């Protein structure tokens, strides 16, 4: 709207005051096209971040399950080190290493912790 109609300051203030009154009466907020586009882009970014977090959590869980299955309880510091890794590619490498690790100490060396 701002691009289509450039109002003098006094009319612009009146327009926004009337718009606010109308929004309250209609119980629906006025959302500009820019806000809608920003909201949609924000949702898309949020979905991608959520997918990445889900993938990381799944990989971290598999690593710790593999280690627990083969070597018993995983020490807290080692588990925390796995949880601290955010790079999915690094986690994929560690997932394979967790299957091949001869011991928790051998895995710890792979992890660099």
Descriptive overview:
By secondary structure, this protein is mainly α. It is built from five helices and no strands. Helix 2 (33-71) packs parallel to helix 4. The N and C termini lie far apart (57 Å). The mean pLDDT is 85.
Strand content: under 5%
Shape, per Cα inertia axes? rod-shaped
Largest sheet: none
Number of helices, where a helix is a run of at least 4 consecutive DSSP H or I residues: 5
End-to-end Cα distance: 57 Å
Uncertain segments are none
- Helical residue percent band: over 70%
Mean of pLDDT: 85
Total beta-strand segments: 0
Radius of gyration over C-alpha positions, nearest whole angstrom: 26 Å
SSE string, helices as H and strands as E? HHHHH
- Secondary-structure class: mainly alpha
- This entry's quaternary arrangement is single chain
List the helices and strands and how they pair.
Layout: H1 9-26, H2 33-71, H3 76-83, H4 88-100, H5 104-111
Task: Identify the notable features of this structure and list them briefly.
113 residues; mainly alpha; 5 helices; rod-shaped
Short description:
This protein has 113 residues and is mostly helical. The protein has helices spanning 9-26, 33-71, 76-83, 88-100, 104-111. The protein has 5 helices and no strands.
